[in-house]
Amino acid sequence: MSDANPMPVQKTQNNQQKTIRVGNDIVSVERMATSIQKESFVNKVFHPTEIQYCKSKSHPAASFAARFAAKEAFFKALGTGLYTQGMGPQDVWIENESHGRPVLHLSSDAEALLKTLGQEPQWDISLSHDAQMALATVVIQFR
What backbone phi and psi angles, to 5 degrees, belong to 142? Predict the structure, then answer.
């Protein structure tokens, strides 16, 4: 049995600790294409800005799949999983900056949960997809 810390810890220049958490998820675009045929699924899982964005794309299923992967990746980084501690998929959503960079947004409840895990949380996200699969990675850093 190892005494290693399960989460990476780094020291800053002034010797303060930083904790980093990472979550990944991969989603089948084909499976998402089937799921989004049900409007009730779309409205339950996705934020209105995500729905508008994804429906404007030539391959909406890939964009929906990437955003679903982002939600899962965020909750994996927290260590809670989706649908736990009162959180659901609409507590996390993606909006894109004008040049296309995805930005992860949190509800006030999700942000409050995040702040219970550490001080000054900062986060970033990366999304990718092709015709078959969508991938998201979320990195959260606490000071």
Answer: -115, 145
- DSSP state letter for 120: S
Cα four-point dihedral sign 27, 49, 126, 84: negative
Phi-psi region of 91 (alpha: psi -120 to 50; beta: other; left: phi over 0): alpha
Gap between the Cα atoms of 130 and 103, Å rounded: 20
DSSP secondary structure letters along 32-96:
HHHHTTSHHHHHHHS-HHHHHHHHTSSSHHHHHHHHHHHHHHHHHHHTS-TT-TT--GGGEEEEE
Structure tokens at 135: 């991938």
**Average pLDDT of 94-121?**
90
SS3 107: coil
pLDDT score, position 16: 60
Cβ atoms of 89 and 106 closer than 8 Å: no
Task: Give the DSSP letter of residue 98.
Answer: T
pLDDT band at residue 81, thresholds of 50, 70 and 90?
confident
CA angle 119, 123, 128 (to 5 degrees): 160
